Amino acid sequence: MIFSRDYIGYLTRRTVKHLIDAKMITTSDLKVTEERVHAALLEELALEDRINEEVRVILDAYSEEMRRSGAQYAEMFKKVKTELTKKYKAVL
């Protein structure tokens, strides 16, 4: 993941505080709201990790063919990742 879990916790607290101060949200239980925002942030940030892992699995399956054709792993990784990002409609 691109950020540490501690930093995600910090982002969560600051985001919730900002939303409350801006009167964009109201909450009767700050702790529950922070937990929900934290879970949502973790899920979104983990998406790139899941896509990267899927790319590795796909490229492992085609490793022999890539070796025979002389394809560069980094180039193929980028191409497959771009396609999966489109497939999942993700913004990375």
- Largest pleated sheet: none
Contiguous low-pLDDT stretches (5 residues minimum) are none
Count of discrete structural domains: 1
Please tell me what the overall shape is: elongated
Determine the number of helices (DSSP H or I, runs of at least 4 residues): 4
Structural class: mainly alpha
Q: What does this molecule look like?
A:
The mean pLDDT is 94. The protein is mostly helical and 92 residues long. The relative contact order is 0.11. Helix content is 77%, strand content 0%. It contains four helices and no strands.
Offer a concise description of the structure.
With 92 residues, the chain is mainly α.
Secondary structure layout:
Elements: H1 5-21, H2 30-61, H3 63-69, H4 73-87
Helix pairs in contact: 1-2, 2-4
